[in-house]
Design brief:
With 293 residues, this protein is an alpha/beta fold. The protein has one domain: TIM Barrel. Helices cover 46% and strands 15% of the residues. The protein contains 11 helices and 8 strands. Helix 5 packs parallel to helix 6 and helix 10 crosses helix 11. The protein is globular. The relative contact order is 0.13. Bound molecules: flavin-adenine dinucleotide.
Length: 293
């Protein structure tokens, strides 16, 4: 199986997409509609998030295996250290390998139920993503990605320290990083430049999720860890009572940001799709990155 790094090579800009594991039969149908629609646009890879426990983890493994076995897409399996002993992590990594998945996004994860709660490692588990990167690499020929936070990880004291730990994860054996959501290109580009200034040559991919509704906006602000800049808030406020206008402006804002990132030389855009293809297709079509959007 090819690796993410191989798929990102070449001069032309690429894109990748992220999905959530389905919770029920309806979700499954929605997910697979999106998978098939986006498959036609040839993303560099598709990644599938890893849930906080039990059955949701099984669903991640099943969905990732199905992408590997039934589509032309390159799957990236997320994996977190939450509530797992090292033996269990080895087991999951073994499952991924057994179904042909060779690309893993190695994450520490958040305390279940309260993302801002105190992190408590499993007694036989790991404390930082850096250790999981080492474990995955040790277990086979995997291409490994990690998470990056343009505004700093919410638990980090300051941005410089967070970048230092990001570089450590990359130096531990990760090939690339995918960024958390952000509102304007500058924080991402500054993080990219700070990493490059350390001599680290790993690729950083920006994470994109268009603001399609005021509900989505609240989620984006929460995940990013930063307030929406005043100028963007003003643009969207005008459409507080006009969902179609709000959505169209959200697509405009995402397209403008993606264009600027491409102008700055990012090799690929990573879309958080929420298991829907439409917005990603619209942005890609407006950027001229796909002909069939
Ligand atoms: C692209 C992306 C995908 C994600 N997918 C998922 C998913 O599928 N499932 C899920 O549950 N969560 C997911 N998350 C959320 C992620 O698990 C949380 O944000 C988590 O809090 C941080 O994970 P990490 O891998 O960055 O942790 P780490 O890199 O371990 O960092 C955690 C904290 O510890 C600090 N730190 C790191 N290394 C060290 C060290 N050596 N010494 C001291 N401090 C250190 C960091 O600065 C940071 O504050 C995702 C996030 C992103 C950006």
């Amino acid at each position: 199986m090819t690796s993410v790094v191989e798929r990102l090579q070449g001069q032309s800009p690429k894109f990748s997409v992220e999905f959530l594991p389905p919770r029920n039969a309806d979700d499954e149908r929605i997910l697979w509609t999106a998978v098939r629609e986006l498959e036609a646009l040839d993303p560099a890879f598709v990644s599938i998030t890893y849930g906080a426990g039990g059955s949701s983890r099984d669903r991640t493994i099943r969905a990732t295996a199905r992408v590997a076995q039934e589509t032309t897409l390159l799957p990236v399996a997320h994996l977190t250290a939450v509530d797992h002993s090292v033996a269990e992590l080895r087991n999951v990594i073994g499952w991924y390998a057994a179904v042909g998945v060779r690309n893993v996004l190695a994450l520490r994860g958040d305390p279940p139920g309260d993302p801002m709660g105190e992190w408590v490692a499993h007694p036989q588990g790991l404390t930082y993503a850096e250790e999981l990167v080492r474990l995955v690499r040790e277990l086979g020929d995997f291409c490994v990605g990690v998470a990056a936070f343009p505004y700093g990880h919410p638990r980090s004291g300051d941005l410089a320290t967070d970048v230092k730990f990001l570089v450590r994860k990359l130096q531990a054996g990760a090939d690339y990083a995918v960024a958390q959501l952000f509102h304007e290109p500058e924080p991402f580009l500054r993080m990219r430049d700070s990493v490059a200034a350390t001599g680290c040559t790993a690729t950083l991919l920006p994470g994109i999720m268009p603001m399609l509704s005021s509900r989505a906006l609240t989620k984006i602000v929460e995940l990013s860890g930063a307030d929406l800049p005043v100028e963007l808030a003003r643009r969207l406020d005008r459409y507080a009572d006009d969902p179609a206008g709000f959505r169209a402006t959200g697509i405009d804002i995402a397209t403008e940001m993606c264009q600027r990132l491409l102008d700055e030389g990012v090799p690929a855009l990573h879309f958080y799709t929420m298991n829907r293809a439409k917005a990603t297709r619209e942005v890609l079509g407006r950027l001229g990155l796909v002909t069939r959007a």
